[in-house]
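Q: How would the structure tokens look for this protein?
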Amino acid sequence: MAEEHDENSAMFSRTGITHEDGKLKSRIDVPLTDALHDVIVVKAAQAGKPKAEYARLLMQEAITSPILLGLPADVRESLCSLANVAGRPANELALQMLGEAIEKAVGMTRIIVRKQVLGQSEDCPGMHG
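A: Here is the predicted structure in token form.
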């Protein structure tokens, strides 16, 4: 959660925390639409991070997280936003969500098998699964 700042406090362009991989020296100049720039500024503020740090985290997660690479861009962006709000890595959140979806699909498959293949309803006595 972002700290509250009064009009006399300064918002610095970086947190002052050294990156785990050491000093970050390389740069990329990426042209953006005004709308995309504004979204990044707002989301960075919501995450309590400087704009550059927030953008770097988004790029790093999108590139280095194999589970995210196959997702459409809009889904990947939504997942990254959820992960930022949850304070978790996007790939970890994606794996959790995928696991939960698989568990639900398995449960639904059992119900369908009981009803269609076995001709039994979900609440059939003696049917446990």
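Residues 90-117 form the longest helix (28 residues).

The two ends are 44 Å apart (CA to CA).

Upvote if useful.
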